[in-house]
Amino acid sequence: MTAVDVRPDAGPTRGHRDNSRRKAILTMVGRRVLFIVPVIAVVSAGLFAAAAISPFDPLVGYLGTRYMTTSDADKALIADQMGFDNPWYSTYWNWLQGVFTGDLGISRSFNQPVSQVIFERLPWTLLLVGISLLIAIFASLTLGVLAGIRSGGFLDKTVSGLSVVVQGLPPFVLSLGAIALFALTLGWLPVAGLTDGGADPTPAQVIRHLVLPVTVLAISQMPWLLLAVRESVVGSKSEGFVAGAVARGIPTPTITKRHILPTSLAPFVNIVGVRLPELIVGAVLVEEVFSWPGIAGAIVSSARDLDMALLAFLTVGTTLTVMLGSLLADVLVAVLDPRVSTDG
To answer: Which chain positions lie within coiled-coil regions (predicted)?
Structure first.
């Protein structure tokens, strides 16, 4: 019988494997970051090209109610002064130069610098989305693990059934239902806005007005996350290492914490990354229904008025957020599960 070589240098050491894994992840990150540049260029240029053939007239948004009373000569003069008749590629180039020099331009919709619009509205959106996402993640992990551990039981059937129902309801429907029940019928919470009419934005006022939109946005994002955890846990229960742990008499909470939950985290993180665009769309709808003073109102107004300075920045910013969020999710999945390929 041939002796087996068990010397330390007989195969790759754990440290060597870890270094190789880190290099592979860094290579993936570099490749994906380089890919972001042409995508942003195509998205931004495509936006200006699409605006040029849009049936919406930016002059209508600029003049508002004055459009019907303004003479054709004055309309032509204003359009020329504002550059509405310039070729799209010329407008795009001017916008691109401004971005690289730090001048984001003036928003016609709000009659403010784009940077000021973003500065005033972005924190409220981050507050809404951040709290909603944290609640959705924590609740989905907890309920998904419990439902998966007790698959086929009452909790599993109830949670899975509710998830399927919520999946079919758009966020604005959930928003209107929440307003009808908790604001108009029961009177427990305010209908919309950041504060009560005329009140200062104190923490108590903001928190009270934040409850409904945060809850609705969190619930709208939970079904896919929860069901992904539940399926992953059910699959992990049938693995050999779990059966071995059960045979050794290890308590169920310990098996769940040390064996089932870690193997369920990678698919869960991946789903969070995949659902980022849905989260952004949901935030836009929820903000509009609840009149929350975030970025959503700016997106709607800039799209309606073809306010390209603001619309282009928001579109590029949203695209960049989705791509970076997806990249972060992929990195976390690769770190959590060494079996995952980094070639994508």
So the answer is: none
Q: 3-state class of 285 per DSSP?
A: helix
Residue 173 φ/ψ region, left for φ over 0, alpha for ψ in the -120 to 50 degree band, beta for the rest: alpha
Give dist(CA 145, CA 232) in Å, integer: 9
Please give the DSSP secondary-structure letter assigned to residue 18. Answer: H
- Domain CATH code at residue 270: 1.10.3720.10
Grouping H, G, I as helix, E, B as strand and the rest as coil, residue 57 is: coil
In eight-state DSSP terms, residue 2 is P
Beta bridge partners of 276: none
Q: For the chain, what is the domain count?
A: 1
Q: DSSP assignment, residue 275?
A: T
Q: How confident is the model at residue 19 (pLDDT cuts 50, 70, 90)?
A: confident
301-306, Cβ contacts within 8 angstroms, sequence gap of 24 or more: 301/109, 301/110, 302/107, 302/109, 304/56, 304/61, 304/109, 305/58, 305/60, 305/61, 305/62, 305/108, 305/109, 306/51, 306/54, 306/56, 306/57, 306/58, 306/61
* Residues spanned by the domain of 154: 23-55+104-336
Query: If you write DSSP's letter for every residue of 150-208 in order, what string do you get?
Result: TTTSHHHHHHHHHHHHHHTS-HHHHHHHHIIIIIIIS--S-SSSSSSTT----HHHHHH
Q: How do residues 254-272 score in pLDDT, each as one tens digit?
A: 777 776 777 777 777 777 7
pTM for this prediction: 0.79
Give a yes or no: residue 305 inside a domain. Answer: yes
CB of 213 within 8 A of CB of 128? Answer: yes
Q: Rounded to an integer, what distance in angstroms lies between the CA atom of residue 155 and that of residue 148?
A: 9
Token duo for residue 245: 């742990």
28: in domain: yes
What are the pLDDT digits (tens) for 100-126? 888 888 888 888 999 999 999 999 999
Write out pLDDT tens, residues 63-96: 666 767 777 776 777 766 666 777 888 889 989 9
What residues contact 245, with CB distance under 8 A and at least 6 apart? 254, 255, 259
